[in-house]
Amino acid sequence: MDIEEDIRSLQLDSAEETNGSVTPEDVKPEEVDKSEHMDEDPKPEVQAEPIDVEPKAKEKEIPPTQDEDDEAEMMKKRHLNVVFIGHVDAGKSTTGGQILFLSGQVDERTIQKYEKEAKDKSRESWYMAYIMDTNEEERVKGKTVEVGRAHFETETTRFTILDAPGHKSYVPNMISGASQADIGVLVISARKGEFETGYERGGQTREHVQLAKTLGVAKLLVVVNKMDEPTVEWSKERYDEIESKMTPFLKQSGYNVKKDVIFLPISGLVGTNMKTRVDKKICPWWNGPCLFEALDAVEVPERDPKGPFRMPIIDKFKDMGTVVMGKVESGTVREGDSLLVMPNKAQVKVVAIYIDEDKVKRAGPGENLRIRLSGVEEDDISSGFVLSSVANSIPAVTEFVAQLAILELLDNAIFTAGYKAVLHIHSVVEECEIIELLHQIDPKTRKPMKKKVLFVKNGANVVCRIQVNSMICIEKFSDFPQLGRFTLRSEGKTVAVGKVTAL
Ligand code: GTP
Ligand code: MG
């Protein structure tokens, strides 16, 4: 049985109305209403000031308060979170670094410094990646470990780049990056042998695509990178080969390739076809957009600014009070608001809101925020908690029902009641146990099968009851897709992807 076929049959894509494969059972009336309504809504507005490269999330600091009064000036551009994904060494950090360089945020002197540092570490070509890879371990090994964060702007959009690690040991970090993203840039190396390794079973090109889809990354820009490389030399044949191999796989993973995916060739290292289109002398056959144009043009369904407030907490720290970090998935937050920290129901007040470097009075869905709260101690908050409106607060549960696609069990184990794994859902990471298999889904009809099942194997699609030890805050997939899709992992491998169907 084809595993990918089953992932598709899970229909995790139903949140993206633009995707042609929505099934009636997945489209609830309220979702349709929301999307129509959202189309009319103005894009979230933002400040158009250049922003510096932000330190990684782990180096937390709140910048000094800036002028708060020109908030009316703010929010002119929309904001998008873009996660860079793909196999190890595909060139994600290099491309991310090049974007920052091309958008004028890193000066020549810094680049020269990085060139020297990279040379000293015998990693000459790695200097561009150093813009994103900021810690010593990453620079020495030439591998991203923690998700790097940076900001840049195009004509229409303010972007937050999330540079995920490609190495398979750091997939949990990649999941955390992708769960914050609206769109993905899938970086693929065109270099001889490298595309092949990434695309093999067990390669992270595949795993990342499947995870990204599950985690709600609605659109993908597939950048075929390293086109400058001596084994490639901007070969149309190589580019076409990669596109034609990737296309069916992307379809199987649930992406509508016509609507949700754009392919383009680049060289992240040289910076070709990135800010401006590639010169015809270098690549006579490319007539499509450059990366900045493509990013500018990506359309994603807006989240509901009027919905109940939901912000999963990714991190927290002490700084003149308690500060929480996260991305708003629904609703709007204003200074002075009373909110709940769920699941422990702590009543809090919003003291200050920061978008990137700027203090703002309010912020809408899609924004990455730091919020200073009063009424709660930092110790009483964990990542995975959710900042929620008081009315219509987020459900807190220890058990839920979900539909799962079993991807790959370790050593071909069987999946049955008692199976234990690690649940990743928005910013939650929790041990979980399968309590009961309710029914299997027929892969052909996609309807529940009548016969009671006691176990299933790789490739199966099954509805089951899942239990966690401590309370977690989640939503039904049909109500809030971003808070209702998840992955199950075991011993460092993704074993299943799923969606919450009942609480
Ligand atoms: P991980 O973070 O470990 O997953 O890797 P990554 O995808 O961030 O790759 P990184 O940017 O660290 O680049 C890996 C290697 O590929 C470095 O030696 C880069 O110089 C090289 N590289 C990246 N982009 C290009 C490119 O466009 N052309 C060429 N020739 N080499 C590139
Ligand atoms: Mg990297």
TrEMBL record:
The keyword Nucleotide-binding applies. Residues 77-306 form the Tr-type G domain. It comes from the Eukaryota. CDD domains: EF1_alpha (cd01883), eRF3_C_III (cd03704), eRF3_II (cd04089). Keywords: GTP-binding, Methylation, Nucleotide-binding. Residues 1-72 are annotated as: Disordered. Residues 25-46, 53-62 have a biased composition (Basic and acidic residues). InterPro entries: EFTu-like_2 (IPR004161), G_TR_CS (IPR031157), GTP-eEF1A_C (IPR054696), P-loop_NTPase (IPR027417), T_Tr_GTP-bd_dom (IPR000795), TRAFAC_GTPase_members (IPR050100), Transl_B-barrel_sf (IPR009000), Transl_elong_EF1A/Init_IF2_C (IPR009001). The keyword Transcription regulation does not apply. GO terms for molecular function: GTP binding; GTPase activity. It holds the Pfam family GTP_EFTU_D2. PROSITE patterns: G_TR_1, G_TR_2. Belongs to the TRAFAC class translation factor GTPase superfamily. Classic translation factor GTPase family. EF-Tu/EF-1A subfamily. This protein promotes the GTP-dependent binding of aminoacyl-tRNA to the A-site of ribosomes during protein biosynthesis. This is Tr-type G domain-containing protein. It comes from Arachis hypogaea. The lineage of its organism: Eukaryota, Viridiplantae, Streptophyta, Embryophyta, Tracheophyta.
